[in-house]
């Protein structure tokens, strides 16, 4: 109402303007609120008013608020020094605007304006969504339409040229939405984004971070803004479903995660945990889109994202004392970071070498639905496999499986967090896994972060609980039916190892209990170990002819010409399943493709390198041959195989294959069909039976959910790496022996001097298997107990409990001689 002092002022809201309408105090107050709401600008004070008007007290300082909707004829904004609030109405950022502000700050050596802009924009989800947008590429039709609109707009502007200056004021939010085609997109354009396409210019964001993060004060602005931003974003996603309204909301997470300093200590305390909690609230489609986007990043960027979340998990685990009373599962920061790490894990899978086409056909018969209530249902034991094996929702949304990935961008091992595995209470975690409640998080739902030892423990709990459930059901059946049923899977025969398994196939989920006729020994685990060892030896006996053996690779493969019926191959699958179910290690030697096929993937050309290396090398040379394949090699789409008796068998890879020559153009097809025949078609009958037997035991197990093919091999076969130093460190002593006894020192010196084969014999003698368990020999709890004074008796063992009974031999030489004799001639149970 007092005015700027310029009697020719064109601002209609200014008291000095000729067109200003006088009003009382109440009307002036209302008008002032309206002007404030519309972000109206103040006039520059006229020279006659400077220093005299109380309406502009701030101008008596350094001229800090020289913004104007009208301009004085003698003053220009360019003539004024940059002020602290030049950018207070900047509601979003572009790369160019950041560099402009940075340059102005550099001239005055005062970065506070940039720090305030970053604090304002990066603490507001709405501002970040609008920031760093890509320039929109218009089609020809859109360009014509825009040109027509521009012409209409020009005519309108000419008609309204005499309008007031206040009518030309632009609302900042509207300006943000309309200034530049790349600044924002309307709702229709948002919906046109593809499954990987985003509206944010990621390269621009990275360049901006590179320029700004070197300045400590500016970096602090990013940190403080993130602390303020995260709770608001979490609230938006939890209660307002903002992503469904605007998929561009994902830009917030894309921009923040490009900050390469997120893993630094300053972020780990508050900012990053809060942001991870917000990210974990994203709906499934948003998580999938983020995974697809990150999958396009290189290995270095994926590794940076992994390290960011891993750093937070490790920092939190080390900084707290987690135990059975204070579970790591209840720490929101660790849980949220693990959920975020899952996005990166699937991005790593998607960005790797994928094979989604070669999948084994499922031949499992569906469980018949019965209208009658079974005893299990009456007891609350519903069919556990009714809905099929557990599948991660994000995996389903993305349409891929971990087993589809031949080679990820970075190794899967980098996702394992060892400190987390050390503090995880697996019994509690397994309970949360089975209950599937939203209030309790289980790390078994993110198996990539667990090592093989921890996952094996979870599988052990699952198997044991299933065994106890079968035992309870059997006992109740006995009460109802009045029959004495066996609660165990009991095997008594020694001479006919295979027959008992086939007879009691319906009881495979019961706990295994083995008795050897005519021999002493209560099965506490050791008898079962020897039973499996003897069964495997019989099954893989070359005289039976069920498998072929490759001398160069020391591996077995299914014999396509075997005379054995499918039941025998089903039996072998059952044996492998029982070994996992009863936590036994088998001495089987299959190529990795067998375990991939068990997980639902067909064999392809690259699998031949492991299973048929000679054939693989020949086909590889065919693919790389630079000459004329048809004229020089003269091969066709017909191949030759030999049966058990050496007779040649011809097979056409495609119809009329004997008349189709292999050429430079079709050699890739030839190689693919050859591999398909060798690894899939030729052994289809045998492998399906084998897989059926394996699934008879493991169909209800979380095996496929938790483990990758190479980990399945580790479960069945154990580790081939025998670290006896680790075994020595974990061995316990009983009966008067200790680590410092002379006999114990002589014992370990003797064992360490053994060759590899003698070490395997020692393990076989002491534990019942010559393989290390999952996690290595350090996980094997062996006990050496005193078995009397010096004598001529041989060392003995209780393989059930991994106990070695060792007399106190008088000399090191006698110890070596007695021990070697014991381990060399220890075939069969009960040698005393």
Keywords summarizing the entry:
832 residues; mainly alpha; 4-stranded mixed sheet; two-stranded antiparallel sheet; 36 helices; 12 strands; 5% strand; globular; disordered C terminus
What is the compact description of this entry?
This protein has 832 residues and is mainly α. It has 36 helices and twelve strands. Among the domains are: 1-43, no CATH class; 87-134 and 194-262, no CATH class; 283-365 and 389-450, no CATH class; 718-825, Hect, E3 ligase catalytic domain (Hect, E3 ligase catalytic fold), CATH 3.30.2410.
Largest sheet: 4 strands, mixed
Mean pLDDT: 79
Helix content: 40-55%
The tally of beta strands, per DSSP, is 12
* Order of adjacent strands in the largest pleated sheet: 9-10-12-11
Overall spatial form: globular
Strand content: 5-15%
